[in-house]
Design a protein that fits this description.
- The chain has about 425 residues and is α/β, with parallel strands linked by helices.
- The chain folds into 2 domains: about 1-325, Metallo-dependent phosphatases (Purple Acid Phosphatase, chain A, domain 2, 4-Layer Sandwich), CATH 3.60.21.10; about 365-430, no CATH class.
- It is built from 14 helices and 13 strands.
- A hairpin with a 4-residue loop joins strand 11 (about 290-305) and strand 12 (about 310).
- The chain is globular and about 60 Å long.
- The two termini are about 40 Å apart.
Amino acid sequence: MLLLNVSDIHFRHPICTSGMDPDRPFRTRLIQDARQRSAELGSVDAMLVSGDIAFAGMTEEYDEAYRWLVELATVCNCPLERIYVIPGNHDVNRVTTRTDMGVRNVHRAISRATAHEREGELLAQFRHQDTGRALMEPIAAYNVFAARFSCQVYTPDKLFWHQDLPLDDKRKLRIYGLTSTLLSGSGGTDDARMGLYLSPLQTVLDPVDGVVNLVMCHHPPDWLMDHDEVEDAVNGRAAIQFFGHKHRTRIHREQHYIRFSAGAVNPERHLPGWEPGYNFVRLNVANENGRSTLEIEAYLLVWQTNPDLFHPKLNENGEPVFRHSIRLPILPAGFQPAVEQIDLPPDAQLVADRPVVAEREKSMSDHDTRNLVLRFWDLTSSKRREIALELGLLDRDEITQLPEPERYGRALARAGERGLLERVAEEIRKREGR
């Protein structure tokens, strides 16, 4: 499996849509470089976008970002339904965090809770009809963008997302997209180190048989107020880790995990250490003498000027590829892969019916379903509404009261639960091209 990782693209309105965008040449060179490397390494199986897609959380920035990501995926032969995204601090609308008193109040309630009460406070605020919506409001434009990829988050049961990809005939890769921006921009200010909160609600990362966990999180643990707990949980349960935010291309290898700190596609040009970058990562399961290992090859690409190009960072032996092996747990005798339920501890349940939540996530992992989601979101809003009402996937109150990413995220999940995805596909076909 070949992964392409980009982070911190920072599409900035209005300049990103003009001919005067000084960052455009780096994005163009990245597409050219990725096209060439994909021709050598093979088609990309999944693209991981680890936050800061926009600069100010504006709709126009996401429109431009979507066009660029489609172009990048196309040149690498990566299916659009295999694009996975998470929010970063620049995907937060700071005007909202500064002026909306509902947002400010919920941020204050969570951040000022004592350490042992904070998890319960977050859960209570997130599940409440009004405060939960306030918590999501600063990333409203991001959520519309992310809904195309089934990566939106919403209250009261989707604080993060997970999706599965096959690694081999016995194992699958489970990608977790964590939301580190819940308190980002509190009061409209820049984030303070250790001022953000992830919580144990997002780091369950159940280490079930036959599953290799991969974590995407924009902020590294040292930016989180619960950094020690996050560090322990992620290192103990996720073999592969992708972080962004710091704009520094780094790789860290330990016996049980590998961590990538992504460089920025478009870092701030006036800051020291300016170095655009991105990553290719290949995963392969090797079986020998009854033991299995996850073999990892990583190409960390960084920018140089004169001439303008991306070149690989060199490993300790002067080679352009970083290699690492992680021994995988022995599978039980007679093990057969099955649909796993994501079990949450009782005090971390986001809804009363845990199997329903797990089935919703499972139904959105399927390749054909994710393609259907993309096509659904390419329809006009009125056509989406027609389908949802005609198939009984939403009621009138939900149509008028829920934000679009949550509204249609729920509708499509219900279609999966009720065996209606073929009907949805049929209704999409009727309306495409009209």
